[in-house]
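Table S2 (continued). Query chain:
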Amino acid sequence: MSGLALLGMVMLVMMIGVIFVGFPISFTLLFLALTFGYFGLGEMVFSLAYFQTIGMMKEELLAAVPLFIFMGFLTEQAGLMERLFVALRNILAPIRGSLFAVVILTATIFAMATGIVGAAVTVLGIMASPIMIKTGYDGRLSAGAITAGGTLGILIPPSVMLIVMGPVLGVSVADLYAAAFGPGFLLAGIYLAYLLGRSFINPKLGPPVPKEERVHSVGVMVKEVLIGVVPLVALIGAALGSILAGLATPTEAAGIGALGAALLAAAYGRLTYGGVKRAVLSTTATSSMVLLLAVTSNIFGAVFARMGTANWITEVMLAMPLSPVMMLVVVLFLIFLLGWPFEWPAIILVFLPIFYPVMDALKPQLGQAMGIPVDMVMVWFGALVAVTLQTAFLSPPVAMSAYYLRQVVKEWSLATIYKGMMEFMILQCIAIALIVIFPQIATSFPEQLQAESRAVKTEEVDDSMNRLEADPYKGAEDAAEGKDGEEEGGEGEDEPEKDPMSKKSKK
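Corresponding output:
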């Protein structure tokens, strides 16, 4: 290890230690990058920081971050999640564990309209916890269902995390979105099976909704579905469908989604000045945090790589006597551990670029070992990282979902919420293992979309006679020249005619 590489390793260790103390991540990264970079690289570090900042500002894809966040806050203002919850509760009320199922289904559908975990957990806690407590649902399972369901927004598109992850891994955001659907629905299915299974085994954990709380009119239920579900599905189709169909870029689709959310809020009479102001301020705060961290982590990563520490770490990890699949498991385990003290922006923007060269070097071996195309390996890895990073919201001590829920449900202690979340962390680990063993869970949908895209053929035009390129006045000029030649009694009468326009037919 060279002196510069050692200096970079000291910078990395100090960064982790300072963040553990509680300093803001963005300013810590910038200060350490400039300080250590000046000692190791001299004044070049300032030019490096300048060009990295300009390059990040030119990344058009990041414009989708504030637009999708604004779409999520407007959707929350429109009350679509409340309507969706009520509609599903009315339909599923008679079955055991119905409120568990309503929470997971509401969170799954709403995750496709917004990727804001805090809003989802808070709204679910406000709506579901009172009736859960009144009906006698188990507090630990209820808290786990709300927090785990709310974190699906970080995985299921349009996830802001996947937009940020795409450029880091060098893959298309559309491919990442397509790859995230399988794991996202798999997790939701595992949650549902676990909750309903336990409710059927022990009805005291999740009894049916009391008859006096149910709606028995079919017309009322149909009305709630039409008002609460159909508009949200249309919004999801407009935003996500345009990306997956290749009709719009993520940034354009985010604009479509934000406009659609505003129209729905206006249609429901919820588009007020105060609501829009809160949505704009919340969007500004969240987007500023993510984008500032993107810039500072880019500077930190550039200095870290220029010192040679990133190459040294890659060489050491590749030299380990581990198979490619075991190395993948090691990387995922390290990301899992990082998810306990750090939130996803720090892991995606600071630590994932350190692991990326290792996974990039192992792409051919992983593709051959798992039976997937090489160009799908990083998409598969991105889906695995996304599922693993859900633990950042469920793992103490920085389990933000627990604090979001605790703020709105005073009846459940933090200890109860933590115990409930730990059960769902185990379910997440099972999902990760399934996606590692069966990578087609993540890769089948993007592969299908790519195959359909390649199958589209451009209509071929038959131009074997050069009709498109021919000059319309050329025939008249040739006729005039021929007439002049006859008058002159040309010498070439005995020579065979030659057609200057004759060419081989094009296919």
